Amino acid sequence: MSRTVLKIDASARINGSLSRQITDYLHKSLGTDVIERDLAKTSLPLLTESHIGAYFTAKDKRSAEQQQLLSISDQLIAELKAVNTLVIGAPIYNFSIPAALKAWIDLVCRAGETFVYTESGPKGLLNIDTAYIVVTAGGTPVAGDIDFNSPYLQQICGFMGVKQSHIIDVSGSKRDPDTLIDFAKAQVDKLVN
Prior knowledge:
5-stranded parallel beta sheet; 7 helices; about 20% strand; about 190 residues; two-stranded antiparallel sheet
């Protein structure tokens, strides 16, 4: 099956980022076409009352100002709809996700676009088969009691209709980086081969 990938890097570190090294390795291991979205180089707006008003205004009733306001959200959603594989580099900052990644989530989780409400609860609309979530951390154990990053990102992926998600654990980033990189690459190799 041919894979198209949306690779999202959320680390504020451009150089020396472990999550960036692994997301690069991962998308190259998948051997696919890739759309790259670097959140450290993209200034995304924070969600405002105006955004929410525009979200809940019928498309044909939106003002020119509302359409302009939603243009970046529409672009980000179009990127999601164009792929069947998602790669997210998500370091743990203060037990959770980077603020830039939260801004991205707030712009792509839109009723009628990436999910709908049904009688049995929300249903995701994306046609993404797999998400690979690369989680780097210094002192926070991935999947531990104080990791609010990994379960949240898996919840968001499922909420938007991603069929399955995998966590790639690159925790202990204050230790030997080469050992961590080898450990993470071994996880990638096991998942994609």
